[in-house]
Write a structure and sequence with these properties.
The chain is mainly alpha-helical and 305 residues long. The chain folds into 2 domains: 6-62; 65-304, MetI-like (MetI-like fold, Orthogonal Bundle), CATH 1.10.3720. The protein is built from 11 helices and no strands. The protein has helices at 6-59, 65-69, 82-113, 118-130, 135-149, 157-181, 185-193, 198-226, 230-234, 255-262, 268-304. α1 (6-59) packs across α11, α4 packs across α6 and α10 (255-262) packs antiparallel against α11. The longest helix has 54 residues, at 6-59. The chain is extended, with a radius of gyration of 27 Å. The model has no long low-confidence stretch (mean pLDDT 86).
C-alpha cells in the first residue's frame, strides 16, 4: 500500500476519531457556556424588571404636579420634592462646568503631549485607581480641603459641586483618554503632512472625532454623580430643605438625600409611596441623561460619515 502499513492506517483513524471527539466536546462546552450566559442575563433582566415594576407600582398614586412643586412635609399627602429637584438640577451643570475642562484637558496632555515615561504610567495608574475609590472618600476630601482648608461654608451648592467634580474627574479623564486614543494615527500624520501645527491638529482633527466618546463617558459620569449620597452627607448638605437654592452659596439638598431621609420615616406612606415616587423622578432624569449621551454620539457619528 505504497509504504503505508495497516498500523499507520489505524493510527491515522485513531487520530481522526480523537479530533472528532474533541470537536464534539468543545461544541458541547460552547452550548453549555451559551446556556449559562443566557440564564445569567435572564436572571439579571428579570430581577431589574421586578424591582422597577415594584417601585413604579408604589409610586403611581403619588406622581402628580403637586408632588413636583411642593416642598417636603411631615404629612405624606403634602410632601413634595421641589427644593431637592432644583438643587439637583443646579448641581449637575456646575459639576460639568468644573470637571469637563479639567478632565478633557488632562486627557489631551497625557495622550498627545506627555512622553511615554515611568512618571506618566504612574499618573495613569493612579487616575485609574481613583476612578474606583469609594465615593465617601471624596466626601472626606471635600470636607477637609474645601471646608476646613479653604474655609468655604459647608453644605453649600459650590462645595457640593466641587466635591462631586472631584468624584467624576478620574472617570472623565479615563473616558476622554480612551476616546482620544481611538482616533487613527494616520489622521494625525495626514494633518502633519499638510504642515499643520500640533494644537491645530488636535483642535480640528482629534477632538471632533473624539467628541462622541468624550461626551458619552462624561454624561454617564455625571449621571452617576446625580445619584451620589455619601459625599453630600460628608460635606454637610441637608437631607431635607424647604426652600430651593438661589445661588452657589445657598444651602441645598438633592434627590438622593431626600430619598435617604424619607426611607427612614416611620410612616408607611413615606416608605412605600413618597420615597418610590422620588426614585422614579430620579430614574427619569438619569434615563434622560443617558438618552442625551446616545443622541450626542449618534449625531456626531453621522457628521463624521
Amino acid at each position: 500500500m505504497n509504504g503505508i502499513s495497516r498500523g499507520d492506517i489505524n493510527c491515522i483513524q485513531k487520530n481522526i476519531y480523537n479530533r472528532y471527539s474533541n470537536i464534539r466536546i468543545e461544541k458541547i462546552k460552547g452550548k453549555i457556556f451559551i446556556f449559562l450566559c443566557i440564564v445569567a442575563t435572564l436572571l439579571g433582566v428579570i430581577s431589574l424588571v421586578t424591582l422597577l415594576v415594584y417601585v413604579f407600582w408604589d409610586a403611581t398614586a403619588w406622581l402628580n404636579l403637586e408632588f413636583l412643586t411642593n416642598p417636603p412635609s411631615r404629612f405624606p399627602e403634602r410632601a413634595g420634592i421641589y427644593p431637592m429637584l432644583v438643587g439637583s438640577i443646579f448641581l449637575i451643570p456646575m459639576v460639568a462646568l468644573y470637571s469637563i475642562p479639567l478632565g478633557v484637558g488632562a486627557a489631551i496632555y497625557l495622550e498627545e503631549y506627555a512622553r511615554d515615561s515611568l512618571i506618566k504610567r504612574i499618573i495613569e495608574i493612579n487616575i485609574a485607581n481613583l476612578a474606583g475609590v469609594p465615593s465617601i472618600v471624596y466626601g472626606l476630601l471635600g470636607l477637609g480641603f474645601f471646608v476646613a482648608a479653604l474655609g468655604m461654608i459647608h453644605g453649600t451648592l459650590i462645595v457640593g459641586s466641587l466635591t462631586l467634580a472631584l468624584r467624576v474627574l478620574p472617570i472623565v479623564i479615563v473616558s476622554s483618554q480612551e476616546a482620544i486614543a481611538s482616533v487613527p494615527i494616520s489622521h494625525r500624520f495626514a494633518s502633519f503632512a499638510l504642515g499643520v501645527r500640533k494644537w491645530h491638529m488636535i483642535r480640528t482633527v482629534v477632538l471632533p472625532e473624539a467628541i462622541p466618546g468624550i461626551m458619552t463617558g462624561t454624561i454617564l459620569a455625571l449621571a452617576s454623580a446625580m445619584g451620589e449620597t455619601a459625599p453630600l452627607i460628608m460635606i454637610g448638605a441637608a437631607t431635607t430643605i424647604f426652600t430651593a437654592p438661589r445661588g452657589i452659596l445657598s444651602s441645598f439638598s438633592a434627590l438622593p438625600l431626600q430619598i435617604f431621609a424619607w426611607s427612614d420615616f416611620p410612616h408607611r406612606e413615606f416608605q412605600h409611596g413618597v420615597a418610590p415616587a422620588t426614585i422614579v423622578v430620579l430614574l427619569l432624569i438619569l434615563l434622560a441623561m443617558n438618552g442625551l449621551a446616545i443622541f450626542i454620539r449618534l449625531k456626531f457619528s453621522r457628521k463624521e460619515h
